[in-house]
Write a structure and sequence with these properties.
232 residues, alpha+beta, TATA-Binding Protein, seven-stranded antiparallel beta sheet, 2 helices, 24% helix, 23% strand
Length: 232
């Protein structure tokens, strides 16, 4: 049976131990196939290595706030709401008080006199008795010298302010009483005088003081009404 070289495939003669063509020993393993590596052609850039893809890590969801923080925020919101309600009630009460003062001033200016034309049925009533005596309210305003309380005073209190009123009588004129209270209430006092009457108003950050002075032909006295609206 003919034998062949395992290296180059040439036929081997009988008894030959080496190939006469390539010199390989008889029965030598065939050479490993060479892997051809293509050399880069001139002018052609080498291929860049494949980029490494980094795995994406999902972002963690923000943790919910602490229950203590939520409770503090709720308490602050409740306190702010209570403050707003208190401020609103104070503003409303002061509005009602100022409205009452304006109505009082308007009534003082519009009171008819006993001898005013158009009221023929009105006649002076001499020696008009004073109202029943009652508690005299401390108004926080100096009392006109020699003035006598004309009945008791009144005091109305609200959640955020108070209104107190006291009336006096004196034998002095309206001008004398008005000059006294101009000095006592201070330079920021607004004064309105008409038809023998006078209204003096002094407003500060905490209160409003109104003094109304008018003559009374019935008893021949000058009546002094003091009203003080004060916040708490």
């Amino acid at each position: 049976m003919a034998e062949f070289c395992t290296s180059c495939g040439a036929p081997l003669g009988q008894g030959m131990q080496f190939c006469t063509s390539c010199g390989a020993a008889k029965g030598a393993p065939p050479p490993a196939a060479a892997v051809a590596v293509a050399a880069p052609r001139p002018g052609v850039p080498a291929a860049a290595p494949a980029a490494t893809v980094q795995p994406t890590v999902p972002a963690q969801a923000p943790k919910s706030g602490s229950p203590l923080v939520k409770i503090i925020l709720i308490v602050l919101a409740v306190v702010a709401l209570i403050g707003l309600l208190s401020a609103a009630s104070c503003v409303y009460f002061m509005y009602r008080a100022r409205r009452a003062v304006r109505q009082f001033q308007s009534q003082v200016h519009t009171l008819p006199r006993a001898n005013q034309p158009g009221f023929p049925g009105i006649r002076p009533v001499p020696n008009q008795p004073a109202p029943p005596a009652g508690p005299v309210i401390d108004m926080g305003v100096p009392t006109y010298p020699g003035a006598v309380p004309f009945g008791g005073g009144s005091l109305a209190t609200g959640p955020n302010a108070s209104i107190k009123t006291q009336e006096y009588t004196t034998g002095d004129t309206v001008e004398q009483v008005a000059d006294f209270y101009k000095d006592k209430l201070g330079p920021n006092t607004a004064v309105m005088q008409a038809e023998g009457k006078a209204v003096l108003t002094n407003t500060s950050a905490a209160s409003q003081t109104t003094v109304a002075v008018k003559p009374d032909s019935g008893d021949g006295k000058t009546h002094i009404t003091i009203m003080v609206v004060a916040g708490k």
